[in-house]
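Predicting holo structure, 2-phosphoglycolic acid bound.
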Amino acid sequence: MKTPIVVGNWKMYTTLTHARQLAARIRTALHALSITAEQCTVILCPPFVNLAAVEEEIRGSALLLGAQNCWTESYGAFTGEVSAEMLHAVGCRYVIVGHSERRTIFGEDDILIATKFKRTWEAGLVPILCIGESLRQRQQHQTWHVLRMQLETVLSTAPDVKDWICAYEPVWAIGTGIAASPREIAEAHAFLRDYLCGVDYDHIPLLYGGSVNEKNCKDIFTLDGVDGVLVGTASLQAESFVAIVEQGMYAKQTTD
Ligand code: PGA
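Done. Tokens:
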């Protein structure tokens, strides 16, 4: 296993005060446990308006900053949007691209996601590309086809992007409290690893996301081919998030 990666996606939660407190609590807890950046890559993705404050809270610590989305252009008349360059300037190192909530609620398609993916990279940030099938697609045995199509569109649009992270997030497992089973995760990761190796992206870390919590994460971290997790709900409590980080680190130490 490579250095485990744990991403906290705060979604549209936290006010400014809460975001500061949450980041400070996570920082303090990681410090108390002597968890370093070499042991676990921990990325916090607060809402846009709280990025600068969280950056201040985590500066000089092992924590890294990410955003949940960005627009496809560097600047311009795009009311309400935020560019990858702006995110870079505020201290972000990562951007989540193609989260299923962006795809389903905001109608983002693979082409738009591919453009954002490319833009993120050009701005000096690492894209965290989310892919995953819906329940209906799984029931209709289309999972592998969907995953392949989602990856193919992005990689053919942005062949120069070499450093990125892939998060397998079955839509039916996100925010439902029902994570995919270890077997389902292992199968999907084996399929994705095989696909990525075939197109010369074997170095890309593969995460799992969807109802990860401090109770189920150990079984997920120890699966072959899982390099880390993307956490939504459980990232909003410092205790549960830090417990996930701790178990990720432990899983790495014991599987090395
Ligand atoms: P969840 O969210 O952990 O609440 O299911 C996962 C995600 O944001 O992708």
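The radius of gyration is 17 Å.
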